[in-house]
Amino acid sequence: MYHIYQTNGWILGSINVGEANRFLDIFTSELGLVRGMAQGVRKINSKLRYGLQDYSFGKISLVKGKQFWRVVGAEKVDDFNSIYADKNKYRLMCRIFSLLKRLIKGEEKDADIFEEVSCAVKFMAEHELSKEALSSLEIILVFRILHKLGYVGRDGELNHLTDFSDWDTSQLSLDNTKRSLLLKQINNSLAHSHL
Questions:
Q1: What is the pLDDT of residues 84-121, one digit of tens each?
Q2: Nearest CA-CA partner of 88 in 145, 135, 142
Q3: Burial class (CB in 10 A: 0-12, 13-18, 19+), 108
Q4: What is the pLDDT of residue 1?
Q5: Given this model, what pLDDT does residue 17 score?
Q6: Torsion over CA of 137, 138, 141 and 143, rounded to 10 degrees?
Q7: Distance (Å, rounded) from C-alpha 124 to C-alpha 137?
Q8: How far apart are CA 24 and CA 11, in angstroms?
Q9: N or C: at which end does the chain have fewer Cβ atoms within 10 angstroms?
Q10: Can you give the three-state secondary structure of 133-162, one letter per residue?
Q11: Which domains does the chain have, with CATH numbers?
C-alpha cells in the first residue's frame, strides 16, 4: 500500500514527456522542492490537467516512487487571474520561480521560504502596483529569500526589510541608496554561491 502525501504546492515549471505525461517541479509546504511525474495530464479528459498548470497553486497529492514522485491528485486553490492578466506581474512571478529552482536543492521542508513566496504572490495579486513598485517588490523578496537561506546576513540599514511579517505598499518605496545596497548584496551573494 502506498502512502499518499498531501500538501500545498506551487508548480514552478514543467517539461512534457512522451505523448501525454508531464514532469513537474513542485515547491511544497511539507516536502520542499520535489520533482514529480503526472501521467496522462495532457489528455483532454485528465482530471489533473487544470490543477497542474505552470505557476499555479493548489493542493497536491503525491506518492513516492523509486526514481521520482508520482502526482496522483491536484486541486487548484487560487487562480491568481490578476497576475496572469498583467504581463509585468506574470514575468516577475516567472523570475521568482526560476530563482527558487536554482536556490532550493533537494527535498527538504522549508516552510519559511514557502510562506514568504506565497504571501508576496498573494499581495501582488491583491494590489495594483506600478512598474517601480513591482521592481521594489522583486528586489525585497529576493533579498528576503536569500536572507532566509543564509546567503545574506543582517545589515543594520536593511533589517527592517527582513523583519516585517506582512507585505504593505509602504515597504515598496525604496530610495536609490537602499535599492543599490540591496542589489549589491543580492548580486554578491549569488556570485559567491555560484548560483
A1: 899 999 999 999 999 999 988 777 788 899 999 999 99
A2: 135
A3: exposed
A4: 63
A5: 93
A6: -120
A7: 8
A8: 7
A9: N
A10: HHHHHHHHHHHHHHHHCCCCCCCCCCHHHH
A11: 4-78 (2.40.50.140), 81-192 (no CATH)
